[in-house]
Design a protein that fits this description.
Blueprint lengths: L6 H13 L3 H14 L6 H19 L3
Pfam families: TPR_14
Keywords: TPR repeat
InterPro entries: TPR-like_helical_dom_sf (IPR011990), TPR_rpt (IPR019734)
């Protein structure tokens, strides 16, 4: 498939995957965004989204 080379596109794609209930694809897109812009102003927002995704996974595993 086509892989976007723009961090903002990958960030949005990650959010869409999360809303669709596909955390693995969401994480892949968010990590891709972070790889493209590791020191940008958006990096903090990308890292926060990744942390929220991991927190949701942890809560799901605990049965919360």
């Amino acid at each position: 498939g086509i892989v976007p080379r723009e961090p903002s596109v990958l960030f949005t794609l990650g959010r869409v995957h999360k809303r669709l209930g596909d955390p693995d694809s969401a994480l892949a897109a968010l990590n891709g965004a972070l790889d493209l812009a590791p020191s940008s102003a958006d990096a903090a927002a990308i890292k926060a989204a990744i942390d929220r995704l991991h927190a949701a996974d942890d809560a799901e595993e605990e049965g919360v």
